[in-house]
Write a structure and sequence with these properties.
The chain is α/β, with parallel strands linked by helices. 57% of the residues lie in helices and 15% in strands. It folds into 2 domains: 5-65; 78-243, Rossmann fold. It contains 9 helices and 7 strands.
Length: 244
């Protein structure tokens, strides 16, 4: 009798935790050992442990999210600091997709996220991310919603003032240290507040400036909210596109 994904999840989580503890142990040993031969062999074992964690994480994603995880994982594998990625997703998969991407880039790869919140206020997003064990300390928000929020918000912007939004994203990129990426959670929603031409000029500039500043960029477009012509135009600006 085959074991259900629900019953396999605790086992996979236990495997991931054990592999992470082993990885931390080898990293600690490497700091204290001077014998070059021992260091060489421990480094090889550490590389294997990192690979085990990666593979176990992929299994967990497949069990939890199904086939959509494979398509996202493949795109994120080549995502880097000069990549712009357009994610074309349906409303049904929107939240699931966001969580997969953020857990991979923030939790697993340790990148800082400059999150442009167009769909939901940053206070609501913070609650969701904490509930899902996403490392919220790596986030800085630009909130474009009309609701008044406090605490986690760092900047606010109006969704109908794209020039100001681009300037604030640029300043935030320059202020944020380390490896980072910009995550615009609903570029499709911007079409409600602006003309198609204005949104597309905004995206074209954002893609270009992100490359110059060596900052990865992810744009999410909810296909029910955007015309096919506009989706096609956004696709031409970005390096890669996945359909979820």
């Amino acid at each position: 009798m085959k074991t259900s994904p629900e019953k396999l999840m605790p086992l996979i989580e236990e495997i991931i935790n054990m592999e992470r503890k082993a990885k931390e142990l080898y990293e600690d040993y490497l700091k204290r050992i001077e014998n070059k031969s021992v260091v060489k062999n421990l480094t090889r074992i550490l590389t294997d442990e990192k690979k085990h964690i990666e593979l176990a994480t992929q299994v967990r994603g497949l069990l939890k999210h199904g086939p959509a995880y494979s398509r996202i994982e493949e795109a994120l594998r080549i995502f880097c600091k000069t990549t712009s990625l357009l994610i074309d997703c349906g409303i049904k998969n929107y939240l699931k997709m966001n969580l997969i991407v953020l857990k991979d880039l923030v939790n697993e790869r340790g990148l800082n996220c400059l999150y442009v919140a167009v769909n939901k206020p940053s206070s609501s997003l913070t609650e969701t991310f904490l509930r899902e064990d996403i490392e919220i300390n790596r986030f800085t928000f630009i909130d474009c919603t009309a609701m008044n929020v406090s605490g986690d918000i760092h900047l606010s912007a109006k969704p109908d003032n794209l020039t100001d939004l681009n300037m604030k994203i640029g300043r935030l990129v320059e202020k944020t240290p380390g490896e980072k990426f910009v995550f615009l959670d609903a570029v499709s929603t911007l079409y409600i507040f602006n003309s198609a031409n204005d949104v597309e000029r905004f995206v074209h500039y954002l893609v270009s400036s992100s490359k110059l500043k060596k900052t990865g960029l992810i744009l999410v477009a909810v296909r029910e909210e955007i015309e096919k012509r506009s989706m096609a135009m956004l696709t031409t600006f970005c390096d890669d596109k996945i359909d979820i």
